Amino acid sequence: MRKIHLISITDPLVLELASAIHDKGYEVSVSGAEIPLEMAEELEQDEITSFGNGWFPDKLTKNTYSVVLGSKVTQDNPEFKRAKELGLLIQSIPEFIYQRTKSKTRVVIAGSRGRKIIIAMMAAALRRQKLAFDYATTSEIPGLNKHLHFSYEARIALIEGDEHITSVIEKRSQLEFYRPHIAVMTNLNWDSSQDHDTPEAYMSTYRCFSTSIEREGKLIYYGGDPVIGELVKDIRNDITAIPFEEHPVVEEDGQVYLDTRYGKYPIRVLNRHFLININAARLACRQLGIKDADFYQAVSEFTLSSLSV
């Protein structure tokens, strides 16, 4: 049984990642500073080895298959230094997610707005068609009860493309690791609170993301964003660029319907951006083999049962 150690269990996503890895049959150990009692009890219940509060470099040995770093692990962390001394495989969370989904069709939803609802609509459509899928998100997604899910049988992986820096050690954006077969880009809007100091640095991240798309891949992008429009001009020739706009609707007797060639589908609309995101999810699902009519039915059921205005 392969051993995997995760450094800094209190960092975002690390606890869920530990559980997801353990569920796949790996021997998992974790460490961290000031682990809350509730978290320690959860680890014990899940049979995940916790070395206790603090760092325990002596617990790492040559037979540890890999070490996964939380986003806040620093260069002087004793366990990180020990892992390097032993020559162990060291991965950030995005690197680990890529390795776990390497053999799957990866759909990465990126951009400043709409990622959550696009993933939620795609998940609803996939489930309605009984298509298994893995996922990795940084946000709370309606309809998904966890941030991470890995399986052996799924051939599709939905990944939320977060443009933030991977960790304090790895200064590259999380987006640069996923290498999508299908990339969805909503809109690009830099602000000074992000990890990127300037608009140019922010755009550089998305240029790297667009060049990381697998050969013969697809880029589904919002055609109403002039910033994305400039980026798409430089896309590789082997990548198919597919623009999307706001989906048309009609209103009858107080009910809003998606206006489609297959008929009218009742939906609950949150805002104008929601109608833009519907087309993004529809086109991505089409690339996965889901017919538009089936997608519309799934989204109608999802919005009427799961979303509130």
Automatic annotation (TrEMBL):
This is Mur ligase family protein. InterPro entries: Mur-like_cat_sf (IPR036565), Mur_ligase_cen (IPR013221), MurCDEF_pg_biosynth (IPR050061). Keywords: Ligase. GO terms for molecular function: ligase activity. Residues 109-281 form the Mur ligase central domain. It comes from Parabacteroides absconsus.
